[in-house]
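Hi all, long-time lurker, first post. I run a small reading group and we've been trying to get comfortable going from sequence to structure in the token notation. Rather than ask abstract questions, I figured I'd post a concrete chain and ask someone more experienced to write out its structure so we can walk through it together at our next meeting. Sequence below, copied exactly:
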Amino acid sequence: MPTENYKNMPTKTDLTQFESPIVLIQPLQYPLIGVVTANHEICLFNTQTKTNKKILRLNIPENAQLLCAFDPNHMNLLFGNTRSERLNIIDLQEKKIIHRFELDQQTPTALMFANDGLHFICGTDQGRVLLWRFDSPALISRLHSYPEYTSLYVKPKINFVSAFAFDGNRLATSGYGGSVVLTHYRSQTRTKRYHPSYVENSALLFYKDNLIIGNRSGTILKIDSKGKHPNQRLSTSINTISQLLKIGQESYILAVGDKPYATLINANTMQIIYERYIDVDQPITALCKDESDNLYVGTATGELFQFDLLPFNQLEKLIESKSYAQAYLYCEQEPLLKESNTYNLLESLFQRSLQHAKALLEKGETEQAKIHLQPFMPTKSKEIGAILAAFSQMKQLSYLFKHQKFSPFYGLVEQFPLLNSTMLYAKVEEQWGERFKKAQKLMFVDKRQEAQAELAPFATVNAKRPYILLLIQHTDIFRMYSKAVYERNYTQLNHLIIRYPLLRKLPSYNDLIKEAGELIAAITEALKEQTFEYVQVLMSEFSLIPQYEKEFLNIKTFVSHALNLHHAITHSHWRSAYSLIDTHSELMILPWAQELEILWLEKLERCEKYASIGDASAIKKEFINLINLPGRHERIGDLLRSSYHVQLKKLLDSNPDIFSVGVANYCDLFGIDTEIRHLLRIAKHKHITPKIEQALLCPKQRDQWIYHITELRGKIA
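-- Answer (accepted) --
Happy to help. Here is the structure in token form:
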């Protein structure tokens, strides 16, 4: 790896200067990026024309912190502040507020839109993670809370939610206590909690099957969400990591915080590649990346920069001019290029040159080969040196081949492994294969001396001698082996292999076992296509292969669950179907299991709209007997709560007496919650005092309502 002194920084372009620090940069519809500054200015910057358009300035209290997020699919901005108990969405084109979202005496600590642009989440100073649709002011769900309260846990005086990350339908959140919750935010299923032992996590990022966490002490933690690998930690020079950003096609992430630079990290190996990969004069306060891998960086002094993370032009010029060594050095300095197609082209050129050089070396044209490889020197000196050293033995190898001295021939190849790519080696191996096959036939007809004569040239080759002895001394074993391979008798083969492990190395055995292993993929494909009779045929064949006993048991279980799922769907046993995919997540590779999940999400989307207008009856009708489905009822309960909240708000304005009855009914089913407390405070301001028994004004478990399903009404009163 090159040292920092020789690092070529990604190409930097000064875009513009704002009046105050940049607090948010976010890509919008190309070529626009949204920019928010510390003095609450909202701007749209055109990355094509390099022009900046000021949209408006938000009226935020002086001592309040602004929190905001751009809608990724619409020209809208969601914002709130730490002194307000309300969120707003502004149409940036019309410059007007289109929706307000009440936080019920909570203030925001974090905001983020989901990738679909339809939903957004808000973390509050009471440690709650709340979910809304951008087009309705009705709260959809409280996803979870921080910390995880127990009877032994004292509720903290100061609470917060600190970080979010989306990946498709997956959502990761962190808050008070430092725990991280991973869940499917649409259905609230497959929820996991992690406790990375940090008090406050300040940044989250999904990376493949891992979760990358940045915290206040500048430490980065990688958690395998499948639990197959232990957690990995990496210390950085950043005091507080404020943002983690995935860049490139595969393994790299950028970490930024309170420093005037961004650190490049290999997320696969958890190693720092460059501490100061992006370097500016002032602390970096915001950054984002567009689809073309252009990086936009905002600073504490209001400067906006663009960095070209993948400078293909320079690499392409080096390749076109055949400056291959310089091209490799350039890629070492710009590691993101190693994941590009342009780098793959450079590698293919080197491999092609190697093959051509080998052909020249085999002919003894050493100087011509060196000239051919010269453009790659000294960058590829190690590989080239190894080839030249190996092929310097070609004269000796040719002599041994010519005089059929195979023992020293193989010894020389063992000493210089690169010689096994020569035509001479291929010819000797071909000769060995033909002689061994002919010797087998001779032994099978009891012509022992002829077989020994056939194998004589290889009798002293250490690598071949064990096979020769096995054939000559145990002809009956080879006869049984050949018959078992021909008849695909895997049981017989297994017995033979256990007794004579050398047989494992025979190509005929390896080819047969590889072919057998492909049955797993064939069974899975047959399941996807719902050709169940063919599945049973393949399973019967696979069951006869003791070499795959463990794999057979696994696929047998999978097939059993898949068939049960298909039966449940075919007969409209929806509870069983959803229970199966929730219990056995591996079933989600099946298209018809994915369709089942899509149907559920479509139900949820319809019910979100029902909840926004207070139609609890429609929600009950939509889910029918699935309303208390284990693992999925929490989201349905939140939708019912939301619909009743809407009803109660209307009753408070129209009929206070029925409002009192409705609150009592609600508390009887769900217990008192933040939203009801807020409504009761509003009622008090209106001099309305509902008559509610004190016993009802107590919190209940969030899922307590499922024991009173028969009492769920279309209208709360």
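A couple of things your group might point at:
The longest helix spans residues 341-362.
Residues 1-6 have pLDDT under 50 and may be disordered.
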